[in-house]
Amino acid sequence: MTSTKTTFSSTADGGAAAGTGDRRRWFALAIVMTAAFMDLVDVTIVNIAIPSIKRDAGASFSQIQWITAGYALAFAAGLITGGRLGDIHGRKRLFLIGIGGFTLASALCGFAANPEMLVASRILQGAMAALMVPQVLSIVHATFPAHERGKVFGLFGAIVGLGAVSGPLLGALLTEWNLFGLQWRPIFLINLPVGIVAFVLGRRYITESKAPRALRLDLVGVALVTLGLLMLLYPLTRGRELGWPLWGYASMAGALVVFTALVAYERRKAVRDGSPLIELSLFRVKSFAAGIAVQTVFGVGLGVFFLVWTLYMQVGLGWSALRAGLTGVPFSIAVSTAAGLSVQKLVPRFGRKVLQAGALVMGAGVLLYIWESDRYGLAIASWQMALPLVVMGVGMGLIVAPLTDAILSGVPREHSGSASGLINTVQQMGNALGLGLVSVVFFGEIDDRLTPAQVGPAFVHAFQHALGWVAAVMAVIFLLMFALPKRPAQHVEGAETEADIVEDRVLVS
Fold first, then answer.
1. 146-167: b or e for each residue (b if 16 or more CB lie within 10 Å)?
2. Region of residue 489 (left: phi > 0; alpha: psi -120 to 50; beta: else)
3. What is the pLDDT of residues 87-132, one digit of tens each?
4. CA pseudo-torsion sign 451, 457, 463, 466
5. 167: closest CA among 306, 53, 61?
6. Per the database record, which ranges form the Major facilitator superfamily (MFS) profile domain (predicted)?
7. Which terminus has fewer CB within 10 Å in the chain: N or C?
């Protein structure tokens, strides 16, 4: 392969874009968005197929837990490292390695001969996703100038909304269709054609970018961040199933010690050679620090809602997986629509108020859902859920896309990989904390010994109680958003010169 330099124009924030007539960056955007969608779907698609996997593969309860938790743990633990590797070795290169490995792992999952192989393949799949996903936002940040990023992050928010409910719906359809008698396997095998096409097109259309100055991988930082995240997330992920053992609390407390040691080490590392795994200077950027706090708390709310919502419909109301998946379609459409409008039309005019309005609207939708659930009880229909789900979806759409833009708007391009890894990591941490809270705010309201007639009413009550917590989370997010900049940053201090950008961006053909 040969490398040729191409001319790029400097922008207000120090980013760069290909010439205005160059459409390659939009092809690149479609490719990385497809990869992001694959990951979002894969996180949720397995939950629907669990009964089929347990029945067909003969998986034990513990193995079923690892099929879901293994992916999440490997994904969360590797995100920061994956982002930094992109900064060092090239975001295109790491993206292609990630999506190639993700596709291979999907094939191994689909053709797994036994539950043990499926668990191992899911852990590999999560690790490859950790290489792939941070490069998505990094490539967008490095490829598009500030005036185009609003439109791009609007599309990203739409993909997030679509992926949020497409996983359960797609999983339900593929499992019920039982294509070629493969039972649950198509939920993994569907990634093969998509991944192969994305890999081939990615080699052609994605432009390489990396940090403008040489960085080295911080192996001690990698070890500390991986250890700390595993010590925190493993007990949260498995705590309820294991009965919240004492060692779990000790592990989570120990994680705080590890993170404290990590911060101290990273500070010394930055002074010594300027190549820390986590660029702590990012937290001096007000938009980044405030946005990370909002992202974490928002992840908690979503972690609680999506799990209890699924349990409420499928266990409490006794609905099929397909009906539950179809019920979420209005929510997905509302998120996608509002996400596109928020970044392109509303944020440029109203700034931070759009995100705060999103928190209030989503909270109002949650309260409306509680009221309808209480009014209709077990007789509630899918169409009666449509209104609160649309209101919630609009609120979520007003948050997800502008929040990503707000967090990254003040980040220097050379640290976009590290920043992207941190964004995804805190979201995963928030989701894990939310899942941990479910055992308290949802299962804590359900008696361990229920007759069949008591299950439905108990789950309805627990759902309403859990949604009260989600509404409280939305109120906290509204207050945290006052720390966000009133307007998105349009300039990054220390922006690169045009010559730096030319050297930084290499087109590989």
1. bebbbebbbbbbbbbbbbbbbb
2. beta
3. 888 999 999 999 999 999 999 999 998 889 999 999 999 999 999 9
4. negative
5. 306
6. 28-489
7. N
